[in-house]
Amino acid sequence: MTGGTTRWHDLVAQLLIVSRPSSLSLCMLQDWRSKDLAGLETACWEALHQGAKDRRSPLHSIVLSTVHGNEPRLRTVVLRRVDVADKRIYAHVDLRSPKAANILANPNTSWLAYEPEARAQIRLSGLAAIHNQDELCREHWQATGHHSRRFYMRPQEGQPLSVPQSLQEDLKDFKYSDADTEMAYKYFAVIRCDVTFMDIYGLHHEGNRRAEFYYENGLLNLQQWMSA
Ligand SMILES: Cc1cc2nc3c(=O)[nH]c(=O)nc-3n(C[C@H](O)[C@H](O)[C@H](O)COP(=O)(O)O)c2cc1C
After folding, report:
1. Is there a domain that residue 8 lies in?
2. Number of structural domains, the chain?
């Protein structure tokens, strides 16, 4: 092998490493088929926990379903935090948004995450609460970056427009102070969901596999394999 070929191989290897689509969440779930029920449950929670921390993880975005009257409403949100010990998950929303109104009217929520490399889907459901201007909300706000706070400084979302929206110049250029962002704090809300149900469904050529887990007050009280 020539020196040139070796360098080319090194470059390809490096590119493969750099372009790996997901990181730790993948490691947690990729061998899901080798796990027993307890191991699978741990792997799911660890994958979600890592997903919340890792912006590159496919589990960093999660689909949240709320109830609007009699209808389901879906949308993607960022998974901001996962408390594995308490079986709680968190997202950030604008208090003025329809999803916040849905939860205030009906706390039943479902959440859906998909890890494409592992071909595994995780579904969660539980009762959600909206935290606004309380201790938990302040704690999350303090951990929120200056750049993210501008999204709560905009006019109310979901209004009809005659032209596509662009961020106001001052928000685009980050020409606002910490004091300015405090004006927006009143619109910042945290969704906290106390998970009561989780299931995982994995696709595999030797047989798809499914398991479900039920929780009460953060404690596992039933786990079982299900036909898939
Ligand atoms: C990748 C992605 C991530 C998003 N993350 C959030 C989020 O963390 N919080 C949020 O309120 N909206 C988020 N959105 C926008 C929502 O999906 C939704 O369209 C919007 O907030 C309106 O929702 P609603 O009318 O149901 O309240 C995200 C959208 C995308 C595409």
Report:
1. no
2. 1
Probe residue for ligand 1, chosen from 73, 78, 106, 165 as the CB with the greatest number of ligand atoms within 8 Å: 78
This model's pTM is above 0.85: yes
- For 147-188, the DSSP string reads HHHGGGSSSPSS---SS-----HHHHTT---HHHHHHHGGGE
Listing DSSP states for 106-132 in one string gives --EEEEEEEETTTTEEEEEEEEEEEE-
Q: Which residue is closest in CA terms to ligand 1's atom 29?
A: 76
Cα–Cα separations (whole angstroms), residue 204 to 54, 91, 111, 112, 119: 26, 31, 23, 19, 8
Alpha carbons 84 and 29: distance in angstroms, whole number: 16
**Cα 220 to ligand 1 centroid, rounded to whole Å:** 30
Is residue 12 in a domain? no
The pLDDT tens digits of the residues spanning 203-217 come to: 999 999 999 999 999
